[in-house]
Structure formats: structure tokens, C-alpha cells
Amino acid sequence: MNLVETVLSAQTSEPEWFRHNGSFTDIEVLDGTPVKYSLYQVGDTDTFALKVKATVFQDEKVTPSLRAHLEQVLGLTDDLELFYHKFANQSEPLSSTFQKLRGLRLMRGTNLYESLICSILSQNNSVKLWNRTARLMMRHYGRRVTFPDGSVSFLFPTAEVLASLNPRTLRSKTSMGYRAKPVVEVSRMIANGKLDLKSLVKETYDKAIDSLLELPGVGPKVADCFLLYGACRLEAAPVDVWIHRIVSRLYFGSKRVSRPKTAEFLRERFREWAGYAQLYLFDYARRVNSAI
DNA sequence: TCCCAGGATCAAG
DNA sequence: CTTGATCATGGG
Known about the structure:
This protein is of the alpha+beta class. Helices cover 47% and strands 12% of the residues.
């Protein structure tokens, strides 16, 4: 496990965790109650432990829930060694990313609605900006929680609350630009029962994609983002500008390939590891300057 | 000032 | 099925 690389990889469909001198902090509702937790890694990449501290109300027993939550969010059961082994041959360009990124895991969200909205916010936006937008949205429209240690946090707003807003109001409060309209529209579809994400993600990949593409503000990349990070569908490979560039360079001799074909290529080549391949290529392209 | 950021959408070719 | 213009917003 490489916790720092994993959390800082910007590979999430939920707002990034806060970083505080060596440890990360996040809030999550577990068993109906907000839990604030901080964690850091001890040991090295191959032999490690995660030290977790939770701030809870009263004497709630959150350990089992928190453990299960972190296991899912950090992909702790993903068999990275199998992944490395499967694509270890030198003729596979992906293998050149393994050394630097060893221990990088794919983070998942745990809230379908939040993942979908954040994926919409991320379109044609920088990670920094869409995260700021999401935080503003939480502060303005999310439930306010005061933890026993005195700290105050805001949860992600519900679909009902965002559905009740005028898009222009949402836009002026959060500077999310033209994305306010689809955010409100999707929220209304969920609030009035026309859209059920839970049943949507139970469909096959192709069917789920088709349904998602009918939603306002949701195109191929956002749909894949939601399926991969929000719904843990590891066969999805979102193609953004970075992936588009690096895949064209590494696999097509820098020849221009369309985005749909890039996505299709990744899915067919890496199958159930397409999401992970995308993760490693993305991180490699962004962090290793000479890669592009 | 222009270009870019984890794009989507619509009109034309 | 591909290309171009347009869409807000802040950073570089």
C-alpha cells in the first residue's frame, strides 16, 4: 500500500481528503451517524499497517463499520500483485509505470449520488477547482455537524435539497458555472424517483452506460468515472485529456486516436483491470513529466 | 490576452 | 462517425 500516492492521485469521485501533517482526514456517515476519521500509514509499501483514529459521538462502536468502509474505499482487497504480474512483460508499456507507482490503489466512493454529482462537476474542470466547488456546495447546502472535539463539518447535500434550488442560485454560490443546471436536473430526477442509481448500477456495463448517457451533463467520460469510482466497476476506463494523450503516445505511436476508440481499446486490452490500467497511466502521465 | 482543466452538446460535413 | 463552436470559471 502507498497511502499518500493513493490519496493524492486525484482519482476519486468524491472530494479529496484533507491532509494534515502526514495524515489524512475524512468524514463519512456510517450506520447513520457521521464519523470523522484520520489515518496514516506505517511500514513500507509491501508490509504496512494503517493507523486510524476516529472521532465519534458517545461510545458508538464504529470499528467494524469503519474497517469495512476503509477496506472498500482504499481497495485493500484488490490483488495488486496479480495486476502487476499479468502485465509484467516488457512489451506492455503499462509495466513501465509499476516501479514508481507500486502500492497505488484505486479509491472508491461510497455514495452513488455524491459520486455522480462530483463526476458532473469535474467535466472540463481542474481537480482543484471542482473540489473547491464541491466543498462550497457542502458548506452552503449540506448538513452541519459539530463533532465532540468541537470541530465543525458539512456533509454532502442531499438530492432533495439540491433539487429545490434555482440553478442560478447554485451557480452564484459555488461558481460551478454551467454545470449547475445538470446538477439540479439530475438531483430532481433522483428526488422525484425517476432515477434510481442503486438499480442502475446493477445492470450490465453496456446497459448502465446507455442509461447514464441519457442524463443531462453526463457524457462518456463522466459515465465511466461514475461507474469506476462510484460503483466500483473496474472494467470502466474514463478517458480524459491525460489518458487520451498518454495512450496515443504509448500504444499508437503518437498517432491521434479518437476518445471513444481510446476507451474501447483500454476495455478490450485490460478487461477487468481497465480501471487500474487507466489509474496507473493517468498518474504516470500527470506526475512523470517526461511521459508526455 | 490566450490557453487550459479528469467534457458535454449540438450542428454540419 | 468525426470535427468545430460554445458553454462558466479560475489558474497559469
